[in-house]
């Protein structure tokens, strides 16, 4: 049997990240970035497997046993998030998996890649039980390693995007260039490498069919984001905020959807672009191809208040985009401007109503504890959420994610940061958000938890869910709000979801 060249490992930190919510409420996301890397390397003729320890619910020891049995030349532990916190909060699980592999088979070479390792490559290599860090997108660096002798350090300096040890020193190589032809490099995703029957959509994504959250898949139609919100770290693998924005062709996207629908019977799809509703030609091109197929899809994607156009909404709905995630963040323009989330004085209410008038549900995102927040502006944000009554609301505490400009600001100003990477999760026991000049971190977290409870038990919202989605969705929301999260830093808060 031909030796296995590369094993891509997605670590399992779900239980620690989401606590009780991990059992049935949280989504189980495909490791799409790891799948992109696996696809690219397999296209070069190398043998590749993906081990999704999260989807298979394997602990570190079980994952290590599977890795050792596979005997790969190289293991790439991909710590990549499909939203900003999801990379950093997975670092403890990645560390545990690497340590377990190292204890069982120290000869296996271990590499970490993803958003967090790209943001902090030197620190990651210094702190974790691994041999390499990949800074950047991944395929160019991994291909270079596989083409070389993994034990020959003399070759490492010629491999772009690599961080490695040389004695007690840590050395970086030249940055890897960004991949330009996305269709050629990543087209024909290797879905066969994933346990496709294990993935589960977000609960609200399927409010109209709450018992049909599987099967589920997620797709990129573009990489990076041209905007530069200071709290976002999503562009770390691409060179930094605003860098590296590129798109797949609509023709390639419909080919992927064809496979998902016809081979894996997927209806629920997440577009994980940081900003999908942006380029009209791109959006409408994808919608037109889906409409031509006549697929009955349930898709959600991200938009901004200032990127939503009337002429896109009809196409989006007809193509099956039933949800748009809209980053409102704060009711205060002053607070939003302070983190470069600038969309001026546009009427948020009118935009939300415009989306709803097209038959598209709104998932609104709000953040408490941004640097210019105080209790009054945070309360105004909660009041806005209740007034808008979106079909779903995500309430976040402000975090200085590694790779964001807010992280650099926090270090410069010596703001207290979590003492472990799991503290960057929004739902973990150890969660510790940023303080503001006027609100301590514990109070920010307490306010966030209480805001969640107030919103999701508010009669106005519950009546809306009952009318819009029916009794099953209403009962699901009621069950969700009975699950109380334990909080180390705000133990007396409501701590609901």
Provide the fold topology.
Layout: E1 6-10, H1 14-18, H2 32-43, E2 48-52, H3 60-70, E3 74-78, H4 85-88, H5 91-104, E4 109-113, H6 115-119, H7 121-127, E5 132-134, H8 139-147, E6 162-166, E7 169-172, H9 182-186, E8 216-219, E9 222-223, E10 246-247, H10 250-264, E11 268-271, H11 280-293, E12 298-303, H12 310-319, E13 321-329, H13 333-338, H14 348-357, E14 361-368, H15 375-388, E15 392-397, H16 405-413, H17 441-456, H18 459-469, H19 471-480
Parallel strand pairs: 1-2, 1-3, 3-4, 4-5, 8-11, 11-12, 12-13, 13-14, 14-15
Antiparallel strand pairs: 5-6, 6-7, 9-10
Descriptive tags:
single chain; globular; 2 domains; 7-stranded mixed sheet; Rossmann fold; 15 strands; alpha/beta; 6-stranded parallel sheet; 497 residues; pyruvate-formate lyase- activating enzyme; 19 helices
Number of DSSP E strands: 15
> Radius of gyration over alpha carbons?
22 Å
> Largest beta sheet, briefly?
7 strands, mixed
CATH superfamily of the largest domain: tm_1862 like domain
Give me the secondary-structure category.
alpha/beta
Could you give the distance between the termini?
A: 48 Å
Number of domains: 2
Write down the overall mean pLDDT. Answer: 93
Number of helices: 19
CATH class descriptor name of the largest domain: Alpha Beta
In terms of per-residue confidence, which ranges show pLDDT below 50 for 5 or more consecutive residues? none
What strand line-up does the widest sheet have? 2-1-3-4-5-6-7
Strand content: 5-15%
Shape verdict: globular
CATH topology (fold) name of the largest domain: pyruvate-formate lyase- activating enzyme
What CATH architecture of the largest domain do you see?
Answer: Alpha-Beta Horseshoe
In helices, the fraction of residues equals 25-40%
